[in-house]
Amino acid sequence: MVSLDDILAARDRIEGQVLDTPVAGSANLSALAGGPVWLKCEHRQTTGAFKLRGATNAVARLGDVAGVTTASTGNHGRALAHAARALGLPAIICMSRLVPANKLAAIRDLGAEARIVGESQDDAFEEARRLQRDEGFALIPPFDHPDVIAGQGTLGLEILDQVPDAAAIAVPLSGGGLLAGVAAAAKARRPDICIIGISMERGAAMAASLAAGEPVEVTELPTLADSLGGGIGMGNRLTFPMVRDLMDDLILLTEDEIAAGLRHLAGEGHVVEGAAAVGAGAILAGKLRSDGPLVLILSGGNIDPALHASLLETT
Ligand SMILES: *Cc1c(COP(=O)(O)O)cnc(C)c1O
Asked: Tryptophan synthase beta chain-like PALP domain: which residues (predicted)?
């Protein structure tokens, strides 16, 4: 598992390479939730999401490698590309032919090679594994890795510095690297703090795995919270047991509830992606209340501007 000491070491290691993001109060959400609500603005992080913390910590811990690789084209791929460039290491982000052009361009703009292989995410992952096996690259996974989890945990330390009397933290949940890290940090400091995971109802692999008592595969369905999609890995080693042991509550949201959260946050001046809107969505849906200072993690802001605009038009 990942300890408080690992997370404190990660904080020292990544200092100066990631931003300490601001916390903002929300009068509207506080009124709706029945108590104080704070927004941890990680959508303002460099590369637009918290994943830079884990990727930077993992890359900084590497010994002698030819470079780094992964098969994620979303926020983890961006974060890894940025972290590798900062340390002068080559990065190859593997992706299938189906990846949209804007995501490909974003990776290339960060100085990484975007390697197109095959027709599916599995083919892309196979190429990343080949680079690891045959070419001396380190494969940095998006969540199930101790250094990644420790890096995400620095967000938990920061939250307690900024909101020392926090009673609960609401965490967008997918593979569980964010929740595992934040919970490990926060509960080590404040064992009574409540950690609430939030996922979408459609195809949430961690929720299904917790219900089954072991990692299971789910059918992936399109969701507005695209950064919360994907499996947790059938061979999951760390995040499944950590989320199982450290999470106090799990909330699932419909697509409409996520969209309502996104619209509400836009009205408060926060442009976030669907995954980052789940805390606000849960409050608006009456599924989450504040019984003492509640911190919502706005985990990322990488949303297609045209999609964001069209969501604001539909009411
Ligand atoms: C990756 C991601 C998440 C989920 O993080 P996990 O560690 O996979 O649970 C939530 N929000 C955003 C914006 C993300 O990029």
From this structure: 16-300
